[in-house]
Specification:
Largest sheet: none
Shape: elongated
Strand content: under 5%
Number of strands: 0
Helix content: 55-70%
Length: 315
Amino acid sequence: MPDITKTVDAPAEETSAPVVAAAPQKAEKARSLWGDAWVDLRRNPYFIISSVLIFLLLLISAFPSWFTSASPTDGDLVKHFLTKPELGSIGSPDWFGYDGQGRSVYARVIYGTRASIIVGVAVTAIVTVLGAIMGMIAGYFGGITDAILSRLTDIFFGVPFLLGAMVVLQAFTDRTVWTVVFALAFLGWTQITRVMRGAVITVKQADYVHAAQALGAGTVRILFRHILPNAMAPVIVVSTIALGGYISAEATLSYLGLGLASPTVSWGVDISAGAAQIRVAEHILLYPSIMLSITVLAFIMLGEAVRNALDPKLR
């Protein structure tokens, strides 16, 4: 019988290229609510425009002499208020014309920015701190504490804002910027209190708050480390929008003769003076009104942009 030999095929030579291990991808860090809001704000044209305007207003209020060399209080009766503004002379004292006392309207518009910005920022800061603390206490503790603070808030909330500010200002013979700040802050904290109270009632039901309580964290730590950062978003939105309203309220009080008065330079004072001459010299009223409208609009636009960024339902 013939020999049967088994032939075993040699293994095929591997010709495939070596496998290169893929570089591990870096895990993207999860963003917080504030991180997401900042990303959205940087893409929002309203936020960019309003931020540029507000930065310019802050710069004007801090360094008015950079923008005009004229004095807002020195008058020259040779400069007649019936003379039309020289719109081609940009930045000069003649740019916006002169008022009835021969003072440069452009210089007064520039220097009037300081009073309006100080009033708006100071009132907003005071009512935000005061309203946030009262709302946080009322919302967290509840019970009799909530009842007392809520009824107190309702009493102040029932007083008309401008009417109440007029009554308060009547008690002062010398009405300065800080007098107006006190009058507006005295009645302006109620809305922030209500917003903060509602936010705290929602946040205190969260699991991380219950966990902190179970671990024995103190009340102050829970309020300022866990509740306050997570309840501030709606308060920031309301405060930013209200800032423009406080600037408008100061101009209204000054226009009525119950707010700022000379020698303090204020847009409301100039608008009041220009109202009597609107038919013959409309520029005295026009340019302070335009500046006031731009300022209020800038802060309202900023508040709307912040609201859209912090509200998940609007994304």
